Amino acid sequence: MALVAGGQPPLEDAPSTSTIQPSPLTTKFSEVLKSDYNTMPIQRKTVVYLHAEPQITWKSSEVQQMIIQENLQYAILGKFSYDKPDLHELRKVIPVQCEIKGPCNIGLLENRHVLIRLSLLEDYVKMMSTPAYYLKVHNLYCQMRPLKWNPWFVPEEEPSIAVAWISFPDLPPNFFAREAVFSLASAVGKPLTVDMATQNKTRPSCAKVKVEVDLLAQHPQRIKIRKG
Description:
Elements: E1 2-5, H1 29-32, E2 48-50, E3 53-55, H2 60-69, E4 75-79, H3 87-97, E5 104-110, E6 113-118, H4 121-128, E7 133-137, E8 140-148, E9 161-169, H5 178-185, E10 190-194, H6 196-200, E11 206-214
Antiparallel strand pairs: 1-9, 2-3, 4-6, 4-8, 5-6, 7-8, 9-11, 10-11
């Protein structure tokens, strides 16, 4: 099993290219996540005082519920390490120059970060697969790096979640089914999509899956497949 980071920074004068993604990606998150989270009311919490300090505790399921209700499943941070254009300009250029297909909401989260709420999984995978965008605003180029947003975002810390391709060489062709390769890939990270050759069954020697992976975690080099 091999792990390969996806995407290269585009050259300024290079012609733009687009990667064809499998059709299941072109769908809104409300159609992907068949869940009752959107209809479950969020309960008001009671403030508890510990050593005279007020505290509120949320369960992981409640945090996930709020993420879904606030349309943050496919939220991305756009980080500007250098000059950051005006927010009004960013709202115009990001959807066009990042080739975002679905509706998106862009707002200022912190001095160097904008929060981009995407509505399509396809847009999320494409942006997370791109190491950096070079946005042209009034004849000036500004670098924006897409990073995964998380509820405990700290501006001074870099998120450790990235998108990478995982390959399974010599995998028997019967395990190329989407459910099978997603099950295998879940040992490393969160499966997002398979490449076109895997989907179209034109490369039976190797299956490839794109996953969200924690770069700081330990990852297995192989996965044992057993017959029950």
